[in-house]
Amino acid sequence: MWVPLVENNEHEHIGANYFIKKSIDQLFKKEAQIDTLLLACTHYPLLLHKIEEYTPVDVKIISQGRIVADSLSDYLHRHPEMEQRLSTSGQRSFYTTDATEDFNNHGSVFFGQPVQSNHVDMN
Questions:
Q1: For the chain, what are the domain ranges?
Q2: Which of the residues 20, 30, 31, 117 could staple to 94 if both were Cys, CB 3.0 to 4.6 A apart?
Q3: What is the distance between the alpha carbons of residues 87 and 63, in angstroms, rounded to a whole number?
Q4: Under 8 Å between Cβ of 50 and 20
């Protein structure tokens, strides 16, 4: 249920709290001894503050987004030669095989700013 909340841009609305709390309550009802939650979906970081609100304080929450960012940072520190190959003045381009309007709406949620995509036909 959490992915549709994000994809339909409902994750910040009060109704999202109900579904997040319900899911977490069900999870801990099945297994009360959980000590760590791994948020292994690209959508879940957008729900992190709500997940933290309804998760017991002694439970560690690990977000895959932070893991990926830390891993990339570590790699770049270990490979300084990569800086010579990278540009800091580049631009972002988005391509989708789906409807551009739908992609733009979802992408804007993740980037926190308008996104303009280009359609690619794979036929």
A1: 2-89, 91-123
A2: 117
A3: 28
A4: yes
Report the alpha-carbon distance of residue 105 to residue 107 in Å, rounded.
6
In DSSP notation, the chain reads -HHHHHHTT-TTSHHHHHHHHHHHHHHHHH-TT--EEEE-STTGGGGHHHHHHHS-TTSEEEEHHHHHHHHHHHHHHH-TTHHHH--SS----EEESS-HHHHHHHHHHHHSS---EEE----
24-54, pLDDT tens digit by residue? 999 999 999 999 999 988 889 889 999 999 9
Domain 2-89 indexed as CATH 3.40.50.1860: yes
What lies within 8 Å, CB to CB, of 73 at 6+ separation is none
Half-sphere exposure of residue 90, counting CA atoms within 13 Å on the CB side? 6
